[in-house]
Amino acid sequence: MSLKKSVGSVFVALTSVLSAGLLISPAPLSKPTTRAPTATFGDPLQLRSLQGDEGSPFTSANSASATAAAIGLAAVLAAQPDPAFAKGGEYGIFEGRIISLAHPAVMALMYGASAFSAFTGLQWRRLREIGSEITALKGELKALPAVAEGEAKSPKAIDLEAQIATLTATRKELADGSFRDKHYQVGSVVLGLGTSFAIEGPVNTFLRAQKLFPGPHLYAGAGVVVCWAMAASLVPLMTKGNDGARNAHIAFNVLALGLFTWQLPTGWEIMLKVIKFTKFP
Q1: Tally of helices (H runs) and strands (E runs) in the chain
Q2: Contact 164, 191 (CB under 8 A)
Q3: φ/ψ of residue 177, rounded to 5
Q4: Which residues, in sequence order, are CB contacts of 47 under 8 Å at separation 6+?
Q5: Is 60 exceeded by the pLDDT of residue 29?
Q6: pTM exceeds 0.70, yes or no
Q7: Geometric angle at alpha carbon 84, from 79 and 90, rounded to 5°
Q8: For residue 58, is it within any domain?
Q9: What domain range is 102 assigned to?
Q10: What is the count of structural domains for the chain?
Q11: pLDDT score, position 215
C-alpha cells in the first residue's frame, strides 16, 4: 500500500472516531461556565471537558483510554492491505504487453526446437545403431557357403549384399547430416532459454497481478522443466555408452514433449487474456 493511501486511511479513521466522540460528549452543566468560548475556539474538540470537571462523567483516565483506542483503531484500519489487483503501471515496461508476451513467444519457439531436437536425437541414435546392423549382416554373408568362381550367388547372398549397400548409403547420409552436433546445440538452447523463460512467465504474472494462478498449465510447465533437467543430467553416463541412461534420456524428453504439447491449448487461452488486460509497451 502506498504512503498516500496510508496517510489518507489514518486521517479518515481518526477523524471518524473523534467526530463520534463529539457526538456523545456530555451535556453542558446547569451552571454557566466561562469555558464556553474556549471550548468553541481554543478547544474545538472539547477535550478540556474530559479532564475531570466536577460533575462530569469522564475522568482523565477515561480520556487517555479513549484517545489510545482512537489511535489504535486508526492504525488497524490504515494497515489493511489493498486488493491484489494489477499494479497499474508501477513496474513500467516489465508489466506491459511486450514483456508479458515474451513468455508465450519464446516458449512457442522452444516447442519447435524441442521437436527438432527429438528428430535430430533419433537420427543420431539411428546412426549409432546402423553400424551394428551392417556388421551383423556382414557376418551372416560371410557365414554362407563359399561360391566357386563362375557360379551364381545364392539368393540369400544377393539379398544380404543389397541390405548392406542400402544401410551403408543411409549411414553416409546420416553422417553428412551432423545430427550429433545439431542435437547437442539445439538441446542446449532448449535447456537454457526454455528454463529461463519458463521461470520468467510466472514472475511476470506475479508482477502484473501480485499472485499466481496454480492450474494445469503451471503444473505441466514445471513438469517439462524437471524432465529437461533430468534428461540433461544423464548425458555424462550416455557419453560412456550406458544404454540405460540413453533410454532414460529419451523417455524424459518424450514425456517433456508430451506435456509441452498438452500445454498448448491452455497457453493460447492465457495469451489471449494477457493481450486483453495489458497495453503497449
Answers
A1: 11, 0
A2: no
A3: -80, -10
A4: 63
A5: no
A6: no
A7: 95
A8: yes
A9: 92-132+178-277
A10: 2
A11: 87
